[in-house]
Design goal:
With about 325 residues, the chain is of the alpha/beta class. The chain is built from twelve helices and ten strands. A ten-stranded mixed β-sheet has the order 1-10-9-8-7-6-5-2-3-4, sandwiched between helices.
Length: about 325
C-alpha cells in the first residue's frame, strides 16, 4: 500500500511462522550474528541476543569487545560469545574488521548497533561493513549514528550499491536517530508516515524481484514499516514499552526472523507486531503495571505472543 492507504499490522495481516519439521536442527532455524556490547553497555547486546533466541533462532553469536565478554557470557548460557579487538575505552576497534568478516561467513544474518558506542573507528567500521557485507544486515542504535556521521549523498550512494548487489539493509531508528539519518531536516513528529516515505523517496530505491533494498522501521507509538512501496503501521504495543532496552529486544527479534528465512519485509512486519504484542500480554499479569514494564519483561512474553499468533486466539 502507499502512504495514502497504509496497511495496519494486526494478527490478521502479519506473516505466520512455518511449521517446523520433526528432524529440524539448529542450522535450519537460523544463525544470527550480533555485534556491539561495548564496555559499560553490555546489557544492550545481551538483551538483543536473548530476544533472538526466544524468537526461535537456532544459534546466536555475540561479537563483543574482549573486556565485555565475561559479563555478557554470564547473562544467558545459550548465547555464544566471541571476543573482538578493542580500543582503550573498551569499544570495538576498526582492527576487528577481518575477524568480523570471518564470523559473518558462518551467519545467515547480521545485526550491529546495540551497545556499540561511538568513536571515529566505529564510524568507519560500520560503514565498511555496511558496504561490503553481502548478507542481510540490521543496523540499530549507534550503528545508525555511525552511518549518520556521513553525508546523506554518500549514504544514499552506499544503499544504492548494496541494493544493486542484491542485499538488504534494515534500519530501525527511533525519531532522534531518524532525524540524524535525515541530516536533521525531517520534522518527524508532524507526520511520521510522510517523513518515512519522503526519506525512502530521497534514497530512490525500489524493491525489485531478486534484488536487495532498504527496510525502514520508524519506532514509536504506531511504529511504521516501509520498503519504499508498501507502508505498514503497527497496532500493537503500549506506552509502558517506552523503556531502555526495548529497541534492543526488537532488533534481536527481527534479526532472528530474517535468519529463519522470512523476507526482510516480512521479518520487520512480524517482529514489530510481536514485540508490541509481548508488551500488551505483559500487562495482563496482575504483577505488571504500565510503569513496571522493562526489556526483560518483553522477552519473557515473546513466546506467549508467538503461541497466541500461531493458535489464532488473538483477542482483538
Amino acid at each position: 500500500m502507499t502512504r495514502d492507504k497504509p496497511t495496519y499490522l494486526t494478527a490478521h495481516t502479519v506473516p505466520r511462522f512455518r511449521k517446523r519439521i520433526r528432524d529440524s536442527h539448529k542450522g535450519d532455524c537460523g544463525r544470527v550474528l550480533l555485534i556491539g556490547g561495548s564496555f559499560g553497555m553490555s546489557g544492550a547486546i545481551a538483551l538483543a541476543g536473548r530476544a533472538a533466541l526466544v524468537t526461535g533462532s537456532g544459534l546466536v553469536r555475540l561479537a563483543v569487545p574482549e573486556r565485555s565478554l565475561s559479563i555478557i557470557a554470564s547473562s544467558m548460557p545459550e548465547l555464544m560469545t566471541v571476543a573482538l579487538p578493542e580500543n582503550r575505552s573498551g569499544k570495538i576497534s576498526l582492527d576487528a574488521f577481518p575477524r568480523i568478516m570471518s564470523l559473518i561467513e558462518e551467519a545467515d544474518v547480521v545485526a550491529i548497533g546495540p551497545g556499540l558506542g561511538r568513536s571515529a573507528g566505529l564510524d568507519a567500521l560500520v560503514m565498511r561493513l555496511h558496504r561490503e557485507v553481502r548478507k542481510p544486515m540490521l543496523i540499530d542504535a549507534d550503528g545508525l549514528n555511525a552511518l549518520a556521521s556521513y553525508s546523506f549523498d554518500r549514504l544514499a550512494g552506499s544503499f544504492a550499491e548494496t541494493a544493486a548487489n542484491g542485499v538488504w539493509r534494515i534500519l530501525t531508528p527511533h525519531p532522534g536517530e531518524f532525524a540524524r539519518l535525515c541530516g536533521g531536516k525531517q520534522k518527524v513528529a508532524t507526520d511520521r508516515v510522510a517523513a518515512t516515505c519522503d526519506y525512502m523517496s530521497r534514497l530512490n530505491i525500489r524493491p525489485q524481484q531478486s534484488d536487495g533494498g532498504v527496510i525502514l522501521i520508524l519506532k514509536g507509538s504506531e511504529t511504521i514499516v516501509t520498503d519504499g512501496e508498501q507502508v505498514l503501521i503497527n497496532t500493537s504495543g503500549n506506552p509502558g514499552m517506552a523503556t531502555a532496552g526495548s529497541g534492543d529486544v526488537l532488533s534481536g527479534m527481527i534479526a532472528s526472523l530474517v535468519g529463519q528465512r522470512f523476507s526482510p519485509l516480512d521479518a520487520a512486519m512480524l517482529g514489530v507486531y510481536l514485540h508490541g504484542r509481548a508488551g500488551d500480554l505483559a500487562l495482563d499479569l496482575p504483577s505488571v503495571s504500565m510503569e513496571s514494564v522493562n526489556a526483560s519483561t518483553l522477552i519473557d512474553h515473546i513466546g506467549a505472543a508467538i503461541r497466541e499468533l500461531n493458535s489464532n486466539e488473538t483477542r482483538l
